[in-house]
Amino acid sequence: MKVILFDLDGTLLPLDEKLFVDIYFRELSKVFLEYNIDPKKLVETIWAATHEMIKNDGRRTNEEIFWEKFKSEVDTDLSDVKDVLEKFYANEFFTLVKEASTENNLAKLAVELAKKDGRKVVLATNPVFPENALVRLKWTGLDVDDFDYITHYSNSSFSKPNPKYYLHLCEKFGVEPKDCLMIGNDEREDIHAASSVGMNCYLVTDNLNPAPEYEINCERGSFKDLIEKLKSL
Prior knowledge:
Layout: E1 3-6, H1 17-32, H2 39-54, H3 62-73, H4 81-96, H5 107-114, E2 120-123, E3 149-150, H6 163-173, E4 180-184, H7 187-195, E5 200-204, E6 219-221, H8 223-232
Parallel strand pairs: 1-2, 1-4, 2-3, 4-5, 5-6
Helix pairs in contact: 1-2, 1-4, 2-3, 5-8
């Protein structure tokens, strides 16, 4: 393997996704009250803009797609919104949304093992969040500097489960899909999408997001099992 890709939420970072979304929107709604945006309207608008990112055809960044849709849905001055959000992710998001996660004391070891023999390591988290939201990496004991590349909405023009998301990463590193290993917990977004372009895959089952409509044929196991797999590479 030349490149190993890790999903973040539910894979490196154990996460109660429902609780994560609930706390995230609760705290974000407080921030947007200063823009006179109703909390219900905010949630609807964020979901609508997120769906637009998922449909992105690659001609613009996810960030551009998100804010175009967001601003089309709300009638208010958002000229300083990115500065406001930067503070939000550094403070409320980091301290309060963390309640939705649990520790994974093997995450750092997994990344260290993946780097053996000069392999490149990518944090292939679905790029529908701004770069500032990567502060949640610290909940695992990792940081952005532990990876050779990380996807976020500013540097990406495709999203999971679009197979082109994975092909773009292969192009970036100049490798064939068969020389990559995608590690994730979501059968549709991580495993089916990556394997459809020819990547090798490993399904982490601790926080499994199943997709029974897809046939999944790859190695699978707990995060502890993944550590043994990485040791053997």
